[in-house]
């Protein structure tokens, strides 16, 4: 089955109130699937209307769970299918851009007027962008300062985000072909942080987002992403490793992975080795990133939050706790959204997959305020 959609048919009208103009759609186009979340504003609270996930593997003659590299027209085809099957009723949307398709840098600039910064930051950014500036689209903002040091107050930190023009062109094709209205694109790490972090929490936090083809690692402070990395391993690697070592199909290995530890099957022993073979290097990299951050900024990372479909792996929190030595918790992106109580058990099982889609939908909802 290539489509997984959780549709709130019976309660949709209760939560939407028939006001489609007050609804927004968050879209996350990942390596192995597309996720959508439709929410609306009800009395100042974000309310879930519908959500769904579509596996992209079958659109590339691959298995469910496998990473793909589809052309824009094929992705648009999948998005249209998902929108239809998930009973989405709005085309007012925003789309996340994968971390691998962007470049993010933070650097210091002397404190000056906004007009001067607008001129100087793109020039300074050339030192940090490894491609010609003409090939990318830049955006930037000043990172809020929390430093009381008088000498350091003479400088500001600028965060610059660069996205390849051909990537934006591809996303524009997807928008045009699927006939949705998209007002902005946002790099996925910002959507992720918005979905699962409490901005009132002052200590640095590490976010580990395990996708199908790669793992993204971010360190945030006061809701601002301070450091970001990509590790070229993901949940797909566990499935491929298990399929090879046990001698089973990719599809069956994927099912075993998703049920790991629940049924105590004889194949769990072999599957555990496959999990460790992939997760141990990822967690070692995460630990190095954590230690380097603490050394650079002289601040301790207080906790690690796991998100992404690959984080649904049973027992991951226990493994990570031993490797990282800090508090480990699973993210809860639906915590910022009002949902029916009977859906909570289901969302506990699948919710981590929708972190990015929730995060970008929340930003889109702010446009209506």
Question: What labels describe this entry?
Answer:
single chain, 369 residues, alpha/beta, Nucleotidyltransferase, domain 5, Dna Ligase, domain 1, 3 domains, 11 helices, 36% helix, disordered N terminus
- Indicate the radius of gyration in whole angstroms: 21 Å
Q: Which class of the largest domain in CATH terms?
A: Alpha Beta
List SSEs in N-to-C order.
EHEEEHEEHEEHEHEEEHHHEHEHH
Structural class call reads alpha/beta
Give average pLDDT, whole number. 88
CATH topology of the largest domain: Nucleotidyltransferase, domain 5
Percent range for helical residues?
Answer: 25-40%
Q: What kind of oligomer do you see?
A: single chain
The CATH architecture of the largest domain is 2-Layer Sandwich
Domains (count)? 3
Strand fraction equals 25-35%
Classified in CATH, the superfamily of the largest domain is ATPase, nucleotide binding domain
End-to-end C-alpha gap: 39 Å
Q: Could you give a short account of the major beta sheet? A: 6 strands, mixed
User: Order of strands in the sheet with the most strands?
Assistant: 1-4-3-2-5-9
How many extended strands? 14
| Count of DSSP H/I helices | 11
Low-pLDDT runs of 5+ residues are 1-19
The coarse overall form would be: globular
